Amino acid sequence: MACSGLDEVGDRGVRGVQAAISRDIRRCGGDPSALIEVLHQVQLREGYLAAPALHQVARELQLPLSRVYGVASFYHLFRLSPPPRRRLTLCRGTACFVNGAERLEAILRARFALGEAGPERFDHAGTWRLERSGCLGACGHDPLLRLDDGPLVPSKAGPVVRMPLLPAASLVERLAALGLPLLPQVPVPAPAP
Amino acid sequence: MTPGTLGLAQGPGAVSGEPIRRLRCCDASACRNAGGIALRQALLAAQAAVGLGEAALVIQAVGCLRLCGRGPLVAADGPAGSRLWGGVPPPLAEQLLAEVLEAGGADPLAPFRLDLNHPFFRLQKPVVLERCGLVDPDSLDDALVQGAYAQLGRCVRHLPPEAVRQEVRRSGLRGRGGAGYPTGLKWDTVALQPPGPRQVVANGDEGDPGAFMDRTVLESDPHRLLEGLAIAAWAVEALHGYVYVRAEYPLAIARLRRALEQVEARGGFGPALCGTPWPLRLELRVGAGAYVCGEETALMQSIEGRRGTPRPRPPYPAQRGLAGAPTLINNVETLAAIPAILREGGDWYAGLGVGAGTKVFSLSGAVVNTGVVEVPLGTPLRTVVETMGGGVVGGLPVKAVQTGGPSGGCIPARHLDTPLSYEAMAALGSILGSGGMVVLGPETSMPALARYFMGFCVQESCGKCLPCRAGTVQLAALLDRVVEGRAAAADLERLEELAAMVKATSLCGLGQSAPNPLLSTLRHFRAEYEAACAQPPTPTPTLPLHRQLESPPGATSGPEGPATGRQP
To answer: Which residues of B touch A32 (CB under 8 A)?
Structure first.
């Protein structure tokens, strides 16, 4: 899986990471206008953009750190903190909205221990996080959920869970079978008078 | 070749040396997500098991076959014409192969058979998408056989830049990214700047949720975009250019990258494709998830490796853009129309629709037939949504059609006979936009939809100018009150006032159009907003559903699950 960045750093050591980043920068021609491309490369390998990596990129591209940090924090796809080990991504395209993505999110949050999206709020279990993405490109099968990076892996079950084909109960069962941490069921209180 | 009939229905005779039978498997994103690769592999395995050679049957990966909602799609060409199947499970691959080879008899695949004579296919007029679904997106040779780069070669060898621009002016082509600026005029503006280097850019930052026209072009026929962009470079005498694609389109990026490598491997655009030395160099730049980068000045910032914040215009990019040079920025679909315009002539294109030419739309939402359609401009909205799209799922009435994404608005059902044109859509308070078309059924609440789009704009505002940065947040808060039933009548006035202010004073198109979904739903569905305000105030404000569910178990006495009737 692509997001086990931390362990890899431990194995390869800081030097290895630095050398790899230098190679990324050279491959992009050492050109400051390739900053976004360089950041993509670093994130692809390391899983996220750690502070030392941003310092190194700034130094080697001869850019102010403020500029590098400014770009890294501006674009939604750059991560400044380690990614969760497992991700459930909910499409926030319009078609998914129209076909009940908010309802699906409510169900998921009610039943599973899922961390919030966003770098500063790492999820409590440290494993699963619910994230939202732009259109996942499978309009017509909406609302869509994606497990981890799992697009395009041919498997009978399919990496994308098609909500309308599954009643919510069996969706929950299926996700629980995949290892999502179920929340304890709260007994439904009697309706207030 | 006249792009008269939809490519899907074309027999194999168009290309010489063609095998008797051909299976075209859609390998674009939507069909891949629906299991297209597994199906193709099963078909290939079945072919090997039967011992069929390539002389008898070719199984090919192609781009979008249009009806994305029924994917994975497979089209078969044979002596009897073309047939199409959707959603065939891989275990039925052998039966599908048998059916393709000897049609007739009991057909176990009948439930998956799709009718190519359905209006969804029959009423399409493929110009931009003429090779889409026919050509192998990973093969330059296949593209060349099907006519790619023929017009580029003709331009560079025989047509002076002015003649190319004249043809584009005659075509009446307007920017397909949403703004509708006349393309010929834009090309002239760049070409007529004082002498010096020029830049060209293809804008593939298709960020509107519910829009996937450009992705269809990029994933299905990447050489077509490159040809259009190269012709644009010839017409404005640029020698360098960029294709900018949003990072959310990994497949489109991979295919474009490969297409550029293929051109490079043959020695570049000039020697290989035009037969003359012409040192045009095109580069790929990938975004990183920022909707605002679709705005042209923000796009240039992003290409230069900066934060994607827009700047005031003038100077327009056509005057001063990348590296200070005059820069031509066109949308992907606009550029993809260019080769056909040059081949058939500007007058031909101008005569295609009421408003000159065709437009690609992506149809999604609560509609029966989800997918990509290309129709002449001026086609009534009803034709696309009801005749081609099949109306709302379950036979429910259409409530409205959302066009133009977060910059557009909602066209109510009573205006469905409006022709699809820049002017008619604007008159109804929406925009033709880039082509996203989301059909809404009776279940969709309009204030909730407006809040959804406003939430999108809050997230995507770049923060540079105050009206957009703070205004969208305040509008979203007011819409929260409406949706949650906490609004008073005065809130509607506040909404309108603030929306007008954000629209009038924002720096770029994002802020200027952010209030559009709100304003158009207020205009056409005001009763829903008023009904929300008329509710008696509750002593304890009701939290929205997702916040109720977020609060720790036991802390609230609310119901455990959502009150939708679908809860587990």
So the answer is: 305
Which residue, A44, A122, A54, is CA-closest to A82?
A122
CB A141 within 8 A of CB A157: no
CB contact under 8 A, B250 and A151: yes
CATH architecture of B140-350: 3-Layer(aba) Sandwich (3.40)
The CA distances from residue A29 to A34, A60, B252, B405, in Å, are 8, 11, 24, 37
Contacts of A133 in chain B (CB under 8 A): 248
Query: Measured between CA atoms, how close is A39 to chain B, in angstroms?
Result: 9
* Closest residue in chain A to residue B561, using alpha carbons only: A110
What's residue B294's pLDDT?
94
At B340, the amino acid letter reads: A
Helix (H, G, I), strand (E, B) or coil at B359: strand
Fold of A86-177: Glutaredoxin (3.40.30)
B240-245 vs B199-204, strand pairing mode: parallel
Give the nearest partner residue to A135 out of B70, B212, B568, using CB atoms: B212
CB contact under 8 A, B285 and A36: yes
- Condensed to tens digits (0 to 9), the pLDDT of residues B252-301 reads 999 999 999 999 999 899 888 888 889 999 999 999 999 999 999 999 99
Please report the residues numbered 60 through 79 in chain B whose beta carbons come closer than 8 angstroms to any beta carbon of chain A: 68-71
User: Which alpha helices (DSSP H) does B237-395 contain, by range?
Assistant: 250-265, 296-303, 332-344, 346-350, 381-382
User: Global pTM?
Assistant: 0.88
The fold for domain B11-116 equals Glutaredoxin (3.40.30)
